[in-house]
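Tutorial sheet, problem 5. The two components below are modelled jointly, 836 residues in total.
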Amino acid sequence: MDLNLIWFVLLAALTMGYAILDGFDFGVGMIQPLLGDVEKRNLAIKAIGPLWDGNEVWLVTLGGALFAAFPEAYATIMSAFYLPVMALLCSLIVRAVSIDFRNKTESATWKKFWDAGFFFSSLSATTLFGLLVGNLIIGIPLDERGVFIGSLTGLLGVFPVLVALFAISVFLLHGTIFLILKTGESVRQTLVRTMWVAIASFLFFYLVTTFYAVTQFPQTTRMFREQPVFYGLVPVHFAMLWSVPMLVLKNKFGWAFVCSCGNIACLVVLFGLALFPNLVLASNSMPSLDIYNAASSESTLWLMLIFAMIGLPLISAYTVIVYWTFRGKVG
Amino acid sequence: MIFSEMDVVLLSRIQFALTIMFHYLFPPLTIGLGVIIAYLEGMYVWTKNEIYMTAARYWTQIFGINFAIGVATGIVMEFEFGTNWAMYSRFVGDVFGSALAAEGIFAFFLESGFLAILVFGYKRVSPAFHFFSACMVALGSIFSSIWITVANSWQQTPAGHKIVQMTREGEPWFINGEPVMRAEIIDFWAMVFNPSTVHRLIHVWLGCFIVGAFLVLSISAFYVLKNRHLEFAKKSFSGALVLALISCLAMFVSGHFQAKMVYAYQPAKMAAFEGHFETGVADMSLIGIPNSETESVDYGLAVPGGLSFLLHEDFSEPVIGLDKFKQEDRPPILIPFICYRIMIGTGVAFTVLTVLATFWMYRGSLYDKKWMMWIFVISILPAIAANEAGWVATEVGRQPWIVHAPFEKDDAGNRMEDEDGKFVYVEGEGLRTTDAVSQAISAEQVLGSIVMFGLIYFLLGALWIFVLNRKIQKGPVFDDEAPPDDSADQQSLTSLKQHTLTEGR
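Model answer (structure tokens):
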């Protein structure tokens, strides 16, 4: 059993879970200003109120799992992306506070202030995640110890910026569908309009980013060429993406949300395929950090696998219980 | 440049101290209040007395505010091991990372998931399931304290691992002729139950219970003084007082055995705690300021042989002093010494306070003593200070180590000394804090993030106080018969009046 491969897949699964769950929280944050008056914006807060904190735990677990399974990669990534990670932490703090403190007074100014905080923090977190993913795909310069030797400005290349903009459209779409699912007629028109804008920008950035990746960074498509079965992912992905607006128009909001989740899942798979078997690609001539040389010992990987096997059913149970308890529309 | 390397170390230390001390304002309140809320909800389910549900709802509101900030500031800590202490992460990821991942898997999902039901689910689930959720939240927060304490205890008294050379392409890995080393687990349970885990875990829990209890005592005493919500206040006060009294008394036992354990494994830390410079009979300094120049305690008031007695049950038995350690192996002395005293002094004061209060409560005269009530109102501050001070003492006291190295020992198991009579550490088996910082970051970057955290946490702290104060001033008053979901929406409040707790779902 290749424990390192298993852990790569588990990390991908955690990334998928996090992107699908906190993805709609960030999306809702970015849409909220468009909804209109305080009452309508309140719906956005109520929709994610009981859920966002549990969603964020997926990030905590992803970070912990990366640290435990591939400590060299964890250390390199966190210190290489020092300022972006700090900015991300700042965004997550501001988001948490914006949601939690918003309704603690009756003042409209107070609520407007925190809603702005919710919007900007969701936008910046999404952007920063996009920058991170983009840089990981194309690689960063490392020394022989695996320590980052590049600069902050080097992290703001064309491709990472494209991926950041793409990420915004992804989460915007996902958040829109989630809100359509959770709200009634009062904001439906605004949300459907936003959905079309999000899909258009999604398609645009998907095409530009893919074209750029395929032509400038051939290693991103290496897995496709080695295992052509993965090409089958592309039509599945597009079917899922196209189903989203089609299902919304048919008022099948639950299924539309499922397809939106599937869309994000496919994107994470593409990210994983672009990376595999590396975790931190070296853009210079130094060795990359991959799932073998960046990993913990076999006994730790085994131990962690046991934790994951015990924990996974429990986590699934809690998640189902909580989402079931808070099913239905808000407001 | 060596100067800027030291800068990164010093700045990263300052940042870690700032972020962890701010973070640690919240988990003890979460753990302490979590237990209290679970108790209140259980009492409601058992007795059906509304006062318990009112109390539970009130403390849950306070809990919710603390929890969110605790999570947000906690994520910072998890990432900070990688951002600022990357060499540490590379060295210990095999061991330390597993404990952290376990915390996420087993504790955080449980806590955050059921918190949703606790805070928002009053009208969506039965009182029994709501009580179950409260228990799950309390359990989750206690689980999270377990794993992080296990991880930190491993730093202090490492066990269950070996230090090995890393390999690349199947070959031993050298960089510039130096072997690249790291810690790897060989025995998971030995790592978890390393010599200090159990002592420190119990100590942490008791500290959390004390803070939680004193928060309740503080707010309840305030209401008694203002003659408001008296039934709620007195019921809350008496329950919290029991928790506080038992925890304070247990703390003495816990602290005593922990001190002996610290002396057994980290004698330099104990010497720093007590300002004990010269090996020999040790006095117990009650107050004073340790002076590294003169190697004595200025303005000291001490119990002769007191420390010898506490550690050895013998007033004349010698205690290892700082003179047994090379300068580069000694921790700073002033900070651990003062923090240790803040912690223990508060503990002693609280024990006296809670014993007196319990005595007067049984006599029925407690609530009339306004001065006692005022003491309880402000006591939350020393309670928090003691928790923080204890952690500062233990973390500064373990310096210069970030992973404490073992001592060179002879075949009989006695610590060996060099020609100057100093103990010798097995360097390769530990890691010094100065060698643990990230190499990819600059002093300017860390200064930038310190400023960012300073600003954000200052604002956050101010907000926290502001919102807490509003909740406290408003009191356990709920305008409708059923709890609203947490959005103060007028429309939904009206429609909720149909659903009361007594009617069930």
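Marking note: Chain B touches chain A through 77 residues (CB under 8 Å). Full credit if you identified this.
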